[in-house]
Design brief:
mainly alpha, Tetracycline Repressor, domain 2, 9 helices, elongated
Length: about 200
């Protein structure tokens, strides 16, 4: 399904690739929809686990840059082919399989939440200004990522992904606090209370 797409993959293809009989396959999956939903869950778990390694402790622009570098490395190795595992499934299934769409939407929300949490930590430490909106920044980064995957897949080249991610990170940098105002939020609050007292 990752290489051919969901629609072009038959249960006979799956049986041939897995070396299972029809009865074995139907013992685990009552129909193709059940198999597709299992694929969605597995791809979602793998994608989120992989991204959580680089994003669960995100607290700096350097951390965001390291995540970007890892994505570019993955796309470079595949020469842009196959796109994003979740994005490809979402493009193919969201308008034809409501259960799959709901699962995929939840997975993308969890993916965005990794960025939201990181951007909130960066706000708390004074790296990002108070007017930065973590949820909007997270959506912008995910949108750039998915657009980058699509263009890189069409071009079979990494450059579209590089451009998309660099622009997204530049947008995040535009909310960086100045050196003078970069004191962590907790310290700024404490200073304000001292002045009030």
């Amino acid at each position: 399904m990752a290489t051919r797409g969901v629609a072009a993959t038959t249960l006979d293809d799956v049986r041939a690739a897995s070396g299972t009989s029809k009865s074995q396959l139907y013992h685990h999956f009552e129909d193709k929809d059940a198999l597709v939903h299992a694929v969605v869950r597995q791809q979602g778990e793998q994608t989120l686990e992989l991204n959580a390694r680089g994003l669960s402790r995100l607290n700096s622009m350097r951390g965001l840059e390291l995540w970007r570098n890892a994505v570019l490395q993955k796309v470079t190795v595949r020469n842009g082919a196959y796109g994003c595992e979740l994005g490809s499934l979402a493009a193919e299934l969201s308008d034809v399989d409501e259960d799959a769409r709901v699962m995929l939407a939840s997975m993308f929300q969890n993916w965005e939440q990794l960025f939201i949490d990181g951007f909130e930590r960066m706000q708390q430490s004074g790296i990002l200004r108070d007017d930065a909106e973590p949820a909007r920044l997270a959506t912008a980064v995910i949108a750039a990522l998915q657009g980058g995957y699509l263009l890189a897949q069409a071009a079979h080249a990494v450059e579209p992904m590089r451009v998309a991610l660099d622009m997204a990170l530049d947008h995040v940098r535009s909310f960086q606090a100045s050196a003078a105002g970069a004191a962590p939020k907790k310290r700024r609050v404490a200073q304000k209370r001292t002045k009030t007292a």
